[in-house]
Amino acid sequence: MRFRTFFFDLDGTLIDHFAAIHRCYSHTMEQLGLTKPTPAQVRAAVGGGLENAFSRLVPPEHRAEGLRIFNEYWETIMLDDVKLMPGAFDLLQALHSRGAVLAVWSNKLGSSSRPVCQALGLTPFLRAVVGAKDTPWLKPDPRFTAHMVQLVGGEIDSCLLVGDSPFDVQAAHNGGFKAWCVTTGTHSAAQLQAAGADAVYPGLPELGRDLD
After folding, report:
1. 40 and 111 co-located in one domain
2. What value does the mean pLDDT of the chain take?
3. Could you count the other beta carbons within 10 Å of the beta carbon of residue 208?
């Protein structure tokens, strides 16, 4: 294979968790006496970490209480309404069987990412699952990129990041390696191409075929 180390984003790339995320925002807004967001509004806000998404959806005076409500409710529904993207399990299983090093690298909380990967059967394929609050950084901080490469012992020339957002593209390019993106998340092919993605696919099955 041309790549030996694969970093995968989680939400919008390997998993579809938007139903639960939207439900949690709706619950939070209801508790705060605010208008519930539409699914489209939530999709447009997520990607840069929970606090950044909150800053786009919740007025400043409600954010501290909103985060408390959100996190408390999230713990009770985190494993509800989460499913693998088409082709995700087969792709990870195939790459792992061929000796590739795989890791999840997400701006989703690490404390959420690990249980989700475990519940969906991905953990046996993964060298590491790292997310928000596991380090001081979020994608696309170059220090987060350097940390992930060092963590898994990757060589820059054989690394690939698979994601669904400009954050993913910039995070990979900050480390000097390629980003291949799918349009199953929050951004269109045109947006990903404008962000500099090295390749864009409608989903993981198509991306996986190109790896061969």
Report:
1. no
2. 96
3. 18
Report residue 212's pLDDT band, with 50, 70 and 90 as the boundaries: confident
- pTM of the entire predicted model: 0.93
Instruction: Encode pLDDT of 46-64 as tens digits.
Output: 878 888 889 999 999 999 9
Locate 88 and state its tokens. 């995700």
Q: Which residue has the tokens 């890791």?
A: 103
Q: Among the three residues 34, 58, 77, which one is the final residue of a domain in this structure?
A: 77
The SS3 assignment for 45 reads helix
Q: What is the 3-state secondary structure (H, E, C) of 46-104?
A: CCCCHHHHHHHHCCHHHHHHHHHHHHHHHHHHCCCCCEECCCHHHHHHHHHHCCCEEEE
- Indicate the helix (H) or strand (E) that contains 194: helix 189-194
pLDDT of residue 49: 82
Q: Are 84 and 120 in contact (CB under 8 A)?
A: yes
